[in-house]
Amino acid sequence: MQHGVSAWHRLRRLARWQADVLRGSLRRAPVTLGFVALFWLLGILTSTIASGPEEPLLDWVSVSSESLPEYWPSLLLSAFWATGLAGYIGGTVLALVVGVAAEGILGSRRFLAAAAGTQVAGALLATSFAAVSGFFFGEWGRELTAESFVGPVAFLCGSAAAASAGLETLWRRRLRLLLFTLLVLLALYSGSFQDVMALGAALTGGLCGPLLFGRRPRMPRKIASTRREARVLVALAVLASAVGPVLAALNAHAVGPLSVLRYLFTYVEATSPQDLAELCAEAGRGAECSAARFELRAGPAGFFLATLPQVLLVVFSDGLRRGRRFAWLAALILQAGLTLAAGFRIYRYLTGNPAGERYEFGAVEQPLALLLPMLVPVAVMALLAGTGRLFTVSAPPGTYRRLTASAGLAAAVLAACYVAGGYLARTSFSPEATVRALLADLPQRFLPVLELRNHSPSLLPQTLPAALLYEGVGVAFWVLTCILLVRSFLLPVPEKHPEDVDRARELLTSQGGSTLSWMTLWAGNSYWFAPTGRSYIAYRESFGVALTVGDPVGPEAERREVLDGFMAFCSDQGTTPCFYSVGAGTEDITSVRGFASLQVAEETVLELGALAFKGKKFQDLRTALNRAEKSGVRAEWTTFGTAPLSVIDQIHVISEEWVADKHMPEMGFTLGGLEEMEDPNVRLLIAIDEDRTVHGVTSWLPVYQGGHIQGWTLDFMRRRSRGFPAAMDFLIASAALSLQEEGYRFLSLSGAPLARARDSAGEEENPPVMDWLLDRLGAALEPVYGFRSLLAFKAKFQPRYIPLYMAYPDAASLPAIGNALSRAYLPHVSVGQGLSIARRIVGTAR
Fold it and tell me: Where do the Phosphatidylglycerol lysyltransferase C-terminal domain residues begin and end (predicted)?
């Protein structure tokens, strides 16, 4: 019964949440939701849900070159119907995703004006273009003139383009780049009337959007202002050149001027069962019949190998985005090869198509229609050749030698599997497979099947296992190769000077740094040194993000120049700079440079000199000190290298016990572990009794300022589960009093990630979205690592609170930064531990 009640309560809670979402959507996007309701209501009333509108309704609700000007209401009415059930569902999803977001940015009135205006303008532009395109593209123009359009796609694209004017510059540029690249791609390759109309509506929205916000439209003076953005644009162009032919290949009715590229680059022409029967019935065409049978049976594996050049270009585009030199060179060579292949095939077509290839160049009666497909790969190749200076990032030495060796080994193993497996199943092939035939057929298993028509296969599988072997070896090889290539693009730039740690240590001890600066000397960090030779920044590169470890180390007077230099360094390396756990000074400088920031931690600092744990607010600490004295527990300073083996062993036991109890891995990055304690400059304070039993341990990092140690930072802290219960209170209080006697100025209790002092006082009203998200994430992770409890524990020492920030270029980089942070803090998390973390988070969210 309890399970049933619990399930019922969860169902009611889900229903209430959905109702709240619906009410919120009604408030934010009444026009969009009203359109969706009317969209379906009109479809039901006119019985067009299943198959779309028919005559005579079709004349009034579909826009085409022939419907104007007689049926002028179709300019608007065409948005309220669809061609069938798939169109109604797709239009609804698009409206709920795009329309709600656009209306939220524009407001209901401006959204309604943008929707109506772009719908009409898009229809007029499409019909006008259809009328004149026949002079330049022949068949395409005739196809556009004969087509009609119904659906909400056009006005939703136009509204999205108009809404982009209300976004910040970076997001406006990226949204428009994505939207117009997609629409131009569809118009050139697919080329339907709907694609042209959507592009016209988006162009209208992009032009008139600023007017809706009271601004004059203006053309940007520069498309890309930084090296990083230029790389993204080049990568996008290469990606578009790869995806376009595939999109055309997937659309059997593609009529755009570049749709012919599917015949130049991809093996896409499908054989119908009727064509197969007619072909095999003809005498003397046995080879063609066998090849056609294979075409009819070939599934995703065959299509993958047919589009292999495009797949590789997609992979290389990711490397281009990261500024990788190898990706640029490989993409340039591959694009040059595709250009030569395109020219060779066009030549064969113009010289009589001697091989009998069945290409349907419907638009070749116009010279431009034939030359344009050839010019596209030439233009992409020229783009790559002219932008080589942007791609200067090299992988670690030996990366591609190892990649080649791994790929070669995989090819050898798969080839052996194919020959051995094929011979064992030789009766499953037609004709019966022999070792000689399998070896002769082997190269075709790893190469695109583009030339299958001209070179009929010598072997064809007849059973499913034989077909999996026949097609699978090539797919497995190229998938593995693509994975290896992507991994090579993620490898950090190699550290050229292994002595950098010693240099950083010397600068830190002489110039000084923040309370977290000693962490910059930990293993796993890379270093960028300022040209002055007096400052450096430690960082960790992962997932294309350069994640810094605290503030720059060096004189405060040159911090501004140091930060600018590091940003330029990251731009040259194709990485995203993220300044993590930095103070207000660094956050102020980066904010002037356009960086956003989030408070990610709260550091607690005790001022030494006149510290005395007196008064009611320190009652818990005095109790811990008194109980330790009565229990025979004392605080003892030591280092990892000088401590007795029995103490070191107990420290290991305490640490392992903590990990086993949490069922979680120890975190790294800004949270040190046993390895970081081995530094001889790190001091340990242990709680030990008369029997030499260690009840707790803390480690303290030196803080250098002005060439001398001015304070210490708490790092590692563990206590024995069944030992002295107030060990941590006792150790920190003892450290503060002892270090004060030694003459140090302050004591940092370090930062507590995802925890802030204001959390204990209650949440702010309507906090920023990212702050709200971090608060929720901190609450979800509290049962796992207890960062907020740690901050509350430190509050009993009455410290001074110092916020620590994460400064990042823009919100679009947050997913990559999140991945980099996860890798930095949990570099060795196992699958089971990851699932355990997820379960705890989900359980807390409920």
Answer: 506-808
Q: At a CB cut-off of 8 Å and minimum separation 6, what does 219 contact?
A: none
At position 741, the amino acid (one-letter code) is: E
Does residue 146 sit within a domain?
yes
Does residue 385 surpass a pLDDT of 70? Answer: yes
Residue 208 sits in the same domain as residue 98: yes
Q: Quick count: other Cβ atoms within 10 Å of Cβ 712?
A: 25
The whole-number pLDDT of residue 566 equals 93
* Mean pLDDT confidence for 130-136: 71
**CA separation (Å) from 23 to 30, 106, 110, 519?**
10, 19, 21, 49
Q: Are 184 and 103 in contact (CB under 8 A)?
A: no
Residue that the structure tokens 């049933």 belong to: 4
DSSP line for 28-67: H-HHHHHHHHHHHHHHHHTT-TTT---TTHHHHH-EETTT
Distance CA 506, CA 512 (A): 10
Q: How many C-beta atoms surround the C-beta of residue 57 within 10 A?
A: 15
Q: Which residue has the higher pLDDT, 220 or 151?
A: 151
Query: Domain containing 81 — which CATH number?
Result: 1.20.1540
Alpha helices in 387-434 (DSSP H): 399-424
Residue 355 pLDDT greater than 60, yes or no: no
Q: What is the mean pLDDT of residues 14-35?
A: 66
Distance CA 566, CA 569 (A): 5
* In 339-448, beta strands by DSSP E: 429-430
Same domain? 614 vs 481: no
Least Cα distance to 508 among 465, 551, 566, 445 occurs for: 551
pLDDT at 227: 66
Give the residue numbers spanning the domain of 353: 293-490
Rounded to an integer, what distance in angstroms lies between the CA atom of residue 159 and that of residue 111?
Answer: 7
Are the C-beta atoms of residues 130 and 196 closer than 8 Å to each other? yes
Note whether residue 288 is domain-resident.
Answer: no
pLDDT of residue 756 exceeding 60, the answer is no
- Decide if pLDDT at 358 tops 60: no
Of 206, 221, 236, the residue that ends a domain is: 221
Q: CATH number of the domain at 713, please.
A: 3.40.630.30
Q: How many CA within 13 A on the CB side of residue 647?
A: 20
| 301 and 212 co-located in one domain | no
d(CA 372, CA 378): 10
Give the separation between CA 433 and CA 424, rounded to whole angstroms: 9
Looking at the structure, do residues 324 and 195 belong to the same domain, yes or no? no
| Residue 705 DSSP code | E
Total count of domains within the chain:
3
**How far does Cα 387 stand from its chain's mean position?**
24
1, exposed or middle or buried, with CB in 10 Å at 0-12, 13-18, 19+?
A: exposed
Q: Indicate yes or no: pTM above 0.85.
A: no
Those residues whose C-beta lies under 8 Å from the C-beta of residue 416, and which sit 6 or more positions away, are none
Asked if residue 49 and residue 172 are part of one domain, the reply reads: yes
- Asked whether residue 621 is assigned to any structural domain, the reply reads yes
Residue 657 maps to a domain: yes
CB 794 within 8 A of CB 802: no
Q: Are 321 and 201 part of one and the same domain?
A: no
- The pLDDT assigned to 275 comes to 58
Among 171, 193, 221, which residue terminates a domain? 221
Same-domain pairing of 784 and 645 = yes
